[in-house]
Amino acid sequence: MAADFQFISIQVNDDAKDRAARRQARSHAVKKALEKKRKRQQLARNNFIVTTLEDRGGSVEFGLSQSVARKAPISGQISNGLDPFETLAVDSSRLQILLADYRARQAPEPVFSMAEELAFQSFRSVFKTGFDDPALANAVMLSLSFAVTGGSIDQECLRYQGQAITYIREQMDAVDEAASEATIGAILLIAGVAARLGLKAQVELHMSAVHQLLKICRSKSIYLTAGIKRAIFWQDLNASILANSKRIVDHATFAELLWARDPFVPSHYHLPLGFKSRAYILGVEFCAVLQDLHALQCIRDRPRPARTDAMQMLHINNHTASVQSRLVALSGLSPLQKCCRLAAYLCSVTLCCKVWCELVIPSHISSELLLNLQQTCDSLVWNEHPDLLLWLLYVGGAFAPVGPVRSGYLDLLRLKSDDDYSSWPKVHECMRRFIWSDNAFLVPVRALSREVSQYCSFEEGRTCVERK
After folding, report:
1. Which of 98, 321, 332, 352 is the most buried (most CB within 10 A)?
2. Contacts of 183 (CB under 8 A, 6+ apart)
3. How far apart are the first and last CA of the chain?
4. Residues 6+ away with beta carbon under 8 Å from 250
5. What pTM was estimated for this model as a whole?
6. Which residues have CB under 8 Å from 193's CB, separation 6+?
7. What share of the chain is helix, strand, coil (3-state, %, to 5)?
8. Are 107 and 143 spatial neighbours (Cβ–Cβ below 8 Å)?
9. What would the pLDDT profile of 414-435 be if each residue is shown by its tens digit?
């Protein structure tokens, strides 16, 4: 019996040590209680029972039922780390239900991915741990439930957010202990939700905490996984796009994300003809990024094996990171350059990535590009660059969601298209003068072209009726 007790001295006059001692005592008590529970379950031989939805009246407690497993095979990346004795800080049955939901599995979350082809950024590769950290567990539940709601905050999201923040604050009391992948990951997940909601001040508050923890890790030589470094970069970059927040890192911050041009394919790094004739307008720095973006296009156009090599995927991810980070860093741009930058960023997202931001970033960039084009549509500058304008309109419109934004592109295409680009072959020929990949862009742009034709025919018919 003596081994069941552990005496811990508490100094009442030292708040920090007192809190640490209480946490240690609480942890010891929970550990002993779990040990007793496990012994009882072992004696009863029911500690590894696999239940189904039918066995539990619709709930999933210790594992996925066969029907759910068929729908969500990828959920094992997280659920394999679950404690079978239900010692998690969150409801494991609710976690399994969220993991079985298609919307949660497709969540545009750059911290970790549940897609098989992105194994280099799986839960385990990022955190090297299970699901036992309470702050991380609640932050993951927040991210998954937020995805299921379609990007809106409900009571469940608020509960997970509040619990995650509470645990993070406790961990930050002992900053050295907080400098870990789990704590950083939890903060990143909360920041991701704030970015999706456009809450700039909250995003910057969360990312400044991450920045502080990074400084501690550097000063104390604390090892961080390549996965968490990649997560910091992408969440920081995406948040700056979605919420216009100040960035804390760039593509050169972490050695794991460094990228350089491939010297064996120098022909990939050149400007397409449509940009080459306007190099004097775009500037040297912008042109260099566009050259690297063209190389990304060449990679997309190459025949692709059924299963991509992990090292090649990492190289492509770093290539994309370099292009997007440098595009965001461009400053002092003219209205024409701003439009080109937005379209280039949209291309960089949709060329090679089925990465974390595919469902959110393209529609956001498309909306921003439309706003910039609408503000400058009467400018005489577009009279000198009708082919460039057509590329901008089709690239932006092709990835615009159905609704006001897509209708806005259709309006501009009706107004700005002329007889030189009245047919699809002519449009296609024009698009190929810029950043263009048939593999990545042909289907959505061709669909938009058909909409434009139908839209113009409808408008002409309505005009004729009104004249009569």
Report:
1. 98
2. 133, 135, 136, 168, 171, 172, 213
3. 99
4. 233, 325, 329
5. 0.80
6. 142, 143, 146, 153, 157, 161
7. 70, 0, 30
8. yes
9. 887 776 677 899 999 999 999 9
